[in-house]
Amino acid sequence: MKKKILFKGPLLTRSGYGEQSRFALRALRSREDLFEIFIQPLEWGQTSWISEETEERKWIDLHIERTIAFIQHGGQFDASIQVTIPNEWEKLAPINIGYTAGIETTRVAHQWIQKGNQVDGIVVVSNHSKKVYEDTIYIGSNEQTNQKIELKLETPITAVNYPVKKFENSPKLDLDLEYDFNFITMAQLGPRKNVPNTIKWFIEEFKDEEVGLIVKTNMAKNCLMDREKVFHDIKHFVSKLPEHKCKIYVLHGDMSDPEIHGLFEHPKIKASLTLSHGEGFGLPIFEAAYTGLPVIATGWSGQLDFLVNKKTGKSEFYNVDCDVQPIPDEVIWEGVIIKESMWAYPREQSAKQKMRECYANYNEAKKTAAKLEKRLHKDFSEEKQNKQMVDTFCNILNMATEKQEEQILEFE
């Protein structure tokens, strides 16, 4: 008998959690012989919503309407899958699965542990997120007895990485790039992505050379007001830096998956650059890597799941040295990013050195990138990752069902 699954997540938004939701939904759809799917869409902050009329979007809209009718008529679900930060997980069905990107730092909030112990299974996007969740322990004491109490994750947790995507005919993008060699960084403007240092260190390294850096970014939405604010802030920041021959290009606005793929395939875009402080997974880095671009990245957090060859243990990217230190006070987010946590600070000299090595030895860089591309298409195929996700969901459902049956027997 099919399991009635309530799927709740921001799957119609242009966000990391939106992409995560769509992957999980596609995995469920690959086995509609096992699952009867119902959908409750979420908003995600101030991010834009997807507007393309695709088969998937029509299917989602149809199932949203079907879910509303099902609930209005008193329908009950066998399980829920909730794609959001753990603070928002709740009991929506007899069995509940939390699916989160996890954390880009070294420690999760105690609320995440408490909420995590209230669901039947947890899925995260990387082994970094899994390890941080498992390793976070809080020690408290009973106010009456002074007995020490240990708060840690008791719920089973599994890491499932994203799949690669394939595009038959990605569009040829008309970008007005003056120079033939350009790096690209794709990141939302915010403290974690470290965009100002990325721009500054690039300009200092290539100030007298014909090299460009494309910054694909936004602050929240891809609207006109956001665009004007982004352009103003980056232009003001760059104006304070020394005179330079190298170029900074700002790319803003909605782009479809094929267009993003076309961006990475552009003949003048030669390498991907990210100096972020931490990633749950690092989806733009992953997309650049499986498209065949050499990658320069901070050597810490979720991106190591795919940038490091698990069989050989070797890094297949330009690994920027970093120091893991306490987060700055301004990024503390109550219940999400806590004061006691740390993240990575890329070293300036290492970042400049890796950019230079990629540029100066580009033929070698492309050879390494080609090996990485081939491995990713083999190890992270859509078929493999969909199966892993479905198997993970099924294992959680089976274990939770068995546990409930044991509790019933004990009660009897």
Question: How would you briefly describe this protein structure?
Answer:
The chain is 39% helix and 19% strand. The protein has 412 residues and is α/β, with parallel strands linked by helices. The chain folds into two domains: 3-163 and 382-411, Rossmann fold (3-Layer(aba) Sandwich); 182-378, Glycogen Phosphorylase B (Rossmann fold, 3-Layer(aba) Sandwich).
Task: List the topology elements.
Elements (H helix, E strand, L loop, with lengths): L2 E7 L6 H14 L5 E7 L13 H18 L6 E5 L11 E6 L9 H7 L4 E4 L2 H9 L2 E4 L6 E4 L5 E3 L22 E5 L8 H12 L5 E5 L7 H16 L7 E5 L5 H9 L3 E6 L8 H9 L3 E4 L5 H4 L10 E3 L1 E5 L15 E5 L1 H13 L1 H18 L2 H30 L1
Parallel strand pairs: 1-2, 1-3, 3-4, 4-5, 5-8, 9-10, 9-12, 10-11, 12-13, 13-14
Antiparallel strand pairs: 6-7, 15-16
Helix pairs in contact: 1-12, 5-10
Account of the 3D structure:
With 412 residues, the chain is of the alpha/beta class. The protein folds into two domains: 3-163 and 382-411, Rossmann fold, CATH 3.40.50; 182-378, Glycogen Phosphorylase B (Rossmann fold, 3-Layer(aba) Sandwich). The chain contains twelve helices and 16 strands. The chain has a six-stranded parallel sheet, sandwiched between helices. A six-stranded parallel sheet has the order 11-10-9-12-13-14, with helices on both faces. It has a two-stranded antiparallel ribbon with strand order 6-7. Helix 8 links the parallel strand 12 and strand 13. Helix 1 (16-29) crosses helix 12 and helix 5 crosses helix 10. The model has no long low-confidence stretch (mean pLDDT 95).
